[in-house]
């Protein structure tokens, strides 16, 4: 089923997430962060941070916490069994910290096909803000594979 290019410009409902120290510590441990600035509040403050800093890719984890994250693809009639992660890009504007409440606002910025429509691409940009201040822009590409197309 072709993705209608009219979806470009559509926005998903915003969602907000509070950044919790415990999750930051867990993420730091899971990703092998050895610098105590990521796990120890006093080390973070000694390094000039007001709290534990949010590591770059952690914003993707917070965005995945959106309780309605499946609504977008379902609304397009896309079977999630045909979906692949096509890429992720992060652009940072300001540092986020434990205790911040971050708001995620996502918009479809492009739709295109390759291999005669066997693969369709949906590019979405998510602006992450804290009290209106732009923290980061996350750009993700979703690939939708047509299971009926010849390989």
A few lines on this structure:
By secondary structure, the protein is an alpha+beta fold. The protein has four helices and five strands. It folds into two domains: 105 residues, Hotdog Thioesterase (Thiol Ester Dehydrase, Chain A, Roll), CATH 3.10.129; 34 residues, no CATH class.
Tag the structure with descriptive keywords.
Thiol Ester Dehydrase, Chain A; 2 domains; 5-stranded antiparallel beta sheet; alpha+beta; 4 helices; 151 residues; 5 strands
Task: Give structural notes.
The protein is α+β, with helices and mostly antiparallel strands and 151 residues long. The chain has two domains: 5-17 and 54-145, Hotdog Thioesterase (Thiol Ester Dehydrase, Chain A, Roll); 20-53, no CATH class. It has four helices and five strands, in the order βααααββββ. A five-stranded antiparallel beta sheet has the order 1-3-4-5-2, with helices on one face. The model has no long low-confidence stretch (mean pLDDT 92).
Give the CATH architecture of the largest domain.
Answer: Roll
Number of domains: 2
The name of the CATH topology of the largest domain is: Thiol Ester Dehydrase, Chain A
CATH H-tier superfamily of the largest domain: Hotdog Thioesterase
Domain FAS1-like dehydratase: 6-137
Pfam families: FAS1_DH_region
Protein name: Acyl dehydratase
Write the layout of secondary structure elements.
Elements: E1 15-18, H1 21-30, H2 41-46, H3 58-64, H4 71-76, E2 83-92, E3 101-114, E4 119-130, E5 133-145
Antiparallel strand pairs: 1-3, 2-5, 3-4, 4-5
């Amino acid at each position: 089923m072709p993705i209608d290019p009219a979806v470009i410009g559509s926005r998903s409902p915003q969602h907000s997430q509070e950044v919790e120290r415990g999750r930051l510590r867990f993420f730091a441990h899971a990703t092998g962060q050895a610098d105590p600035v990521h796990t120890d509040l006093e080390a973070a403050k000694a390094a000039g941070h007001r709290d534990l800093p949010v590591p770059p890719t952690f914003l993707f984890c917070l965005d995945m916490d959106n309780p309605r994250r499946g609504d977008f693809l379902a609304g397009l009639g896309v079977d999630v069994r045909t979906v692949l992660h096509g890429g992720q890009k992060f652009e940072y504007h300001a540092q986020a910290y434990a205790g911040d409440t971050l708001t995620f606002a996502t918009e479809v910025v492009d739709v295109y096909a390759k291999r005669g429509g066997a693969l369709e691409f949906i590019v979405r940009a998510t602006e992450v803000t804290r009290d209106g201040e732009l923290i980061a822009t996350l750009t993700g590409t979703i690939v939708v594979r047509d299971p009926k197309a010849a390989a």
